């Protein structure tokens, strides 16, 4: 799965992506506000080349994967105070999705 643009959902909504394989996030993305469960790795700037600078990538939600591959760099800035990737756990994803994993009808679709 590739993420080429920011992903953000309304505070009263949730989005959960269950991914077979890797999740590749483009270097221009600055916000991923969803839940992601992947059996592969999450790459934070798969398209970065040496010498590129990026902005801080904010993860808000919950994320499960094999490994995080942190690729971002804040080239040209003093990076002693600012992380290249920042995580904020959002419990709304667990509380709002819990009803979907019970008695409700769920439709699973492949996006390939």
Give the key terms.
112 residues, 1 helix, 31% strand
Short description:
With 112 residues, the chain is mainly β. It has one helix and ten strands.
Description:
With 112 residues, the chain is mainly beta. It has one domain (2-98). Helices cover 5% and strands 31% of the residues.
- Main β-sheet: number of strands, strand sense, barrel status? 6 strands, parallel
Instruction: Give me the Rg, rounded.
Output: 15 Å
User: Total domains, how many?
Assistant: 1
Gross morphology: globular
Work out the number of β strands. Answer: 10
Structural class: mainly beta
Quaternary assembly: single chain
Helix fraction bin: under 10%
- Uncertain segments: none
């Amino acid at each position: 799965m590739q993420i080429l643009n920011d992903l953000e959902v309304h505070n009263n909504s949730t989005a959960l992506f269950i991914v077979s394989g890797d999740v590749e996030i483009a270097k221009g993305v600055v916000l991923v506000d969803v839940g992601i469960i992947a059996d592969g790795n999450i790459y934070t700037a798969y398209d970065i080349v040496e010498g590129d600078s990026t902005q801080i990538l904010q993860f808000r939600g919950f994320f499960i994967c094999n490994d995080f591959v942190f690729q971002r760099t804040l080239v040209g800035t003093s990076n002693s105070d600012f992380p290249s990737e920042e995580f904020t756990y959002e419990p709304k994803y667990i509380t709002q999705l819990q009803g979907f994993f019970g008695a409700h009808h769920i439709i699973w679709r492949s996006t390939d």
